[in-house]
Specification:
Elements: E1 5-7, H1 17-21, E2 29-30, H2 39-46, E3 51-54, H3 62-66, E4 73-76, H4 86-91, E5 95-97, H5 104-120, E6 138-142, H6 146-157, E7 161-165, E8 178-180, H7 183-189, E9 192-195, H8 206-211, E10 217-220, H9 229-236, E11 242-245, H10 252-257, E12 263-265, H11 274-293
Parallel strand pairs: 1-2, 1-3, 3-4, 4-5, 6-7, 6-9, 7-8, 9-10, 10-11, 11-12
Length: about 290
Amino acid sequence: MFNKIVITGPLNTTEDLRDKLKKYAESSIASPDTHPSSEKETIERIRDADAILVSWESQITRNVLEKLPQLKYIGICATNMDNVDVGFAQSKGIAVTNVEHYGDEATAEFIFALLLDLVKGFGKYQWREYPSELFGKTIGIVGMGAIGVRVLRLAKGFGMKVIYTSKTRKPDIESDDVQFMSLDDLITNSDIVTLQVPKNTEIFTAHEFDLMKPDKILINTCLGKVFSIDNFMNWIKKGQNYAMFDRYSSGDYYESLKDTKNVIFSKPTNGLPVETKERLTKQVIENIDNYLQN
């Protein structure tokens, strides 16, 4: 059992997480309503904790960790671990866990919800002069990880042709309707391009945007920056191009692009349906349980 568990800021878990945590802590469980605004505030919040739970937005740096000699456990309540200096934490004997795949289904469904709004004209914009079908269109998936595979599955359900590029080619998913291509060829041959790459992987430069001819749709649900705003702006102004972003993970893109024509930001719900929160909460508790048992 831990002496004290601190939740550093808001998490995308169910509301009963604190109640579920009580049996793992001898004393109080702190859970502020805001994210810490500085390293100093982070240290103040978790100074006397031996276990902390953090979202991907809370930065647990080497400097923070050096001030916390009593810390034993960091539970990242997200998949991405870039916000924690994992190597240094582990060198100090601090266990670090994360949660994978809890929001994959929701993200893939979200992509197609936005697509249907656009191609059918249900929302603010309509892709072409008349409502279109997804059937027969070509979608290019950049990054065939867990989310990419789920996007592939849904795309095939709509009768779309799928092309993909990825660090690792996956012959087991390929068929007449699913083909591997280079990034350049994928961009040239796709009606719709969706980005599923790791945080801050700058996958699109001016060159890639130049290959995106008019009448294309670009979808970005990645964390961090995957292209420069200047290169993007040069592209979005050409022809009937459209771009869709998940506001929750879009960071600086939202403030810079929210008033740009043909740019669509979702409400901040991507990956956060009740089932997603339940999966996240369940795995957070299981991670703690496994750590304490071992």
